[in-house]
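Sample entry (219 residues):
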Amino acid sequence: MGRNIEVLVEITPQILEAAVSTLRLAVLAFIFAQVLGLALSQAKSSRQPMLRRAAIAYIEFFRGTPLLVQIFLVYFALPQVGILLNTFWAAAIALSMNGAAYIAEIYRSGFLAVDVGQREAAQSIGMRKAQTLYYIILPQVVRVILPPTVNAAISMLKDTSVAALISNPDLMLRARDLSSEYFRPVLIYAYVAVVYFVLAYPLSKLASRLERHLNRAHA
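Predicted structure, serialized as tokens:
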């Protein structure tokens, strides 16, 4: 028992450093996924057939194939066309492209939840499109999309673990290296599991609180 505590104390600085790298990857990928997801949701709702079909094809592909395969494609295929990426950026791009496919559906469901009649009513009293969007549409969309968006952020944080398979220096890669060094895989992976939980739990509580608050406000 005493030796296990010593090992945990010794490895904690490295685990914390890897946790920061994991958080940085998750935050960056989430921001990119939000931007791309919003664009995809609008493209899927577009009246242009080619744009709509392209968005649907993108969403179906990234939702229908494993994230690990997508990371490998980004990391190994892009250099074949002259695009060289380090492991961090390859993981960030793959995670954001994957996450965008799910976030696009969250945004789309949010906009579909707003009755078209409200938009027409706002325009009939002289509100501009920008005013209608800001004052009428977006407040209702936010109420719908916030809880699932926070849940998507939690999933993306956990999905960063897959990036260890291309040697991205995150929590899982550091855990694998430390397990080989100290020969205590159960102890070290259990420790890393606790770190992931500590990182994700506040977001989980935030999602629950937002859902309760928004439901009360809507009641």
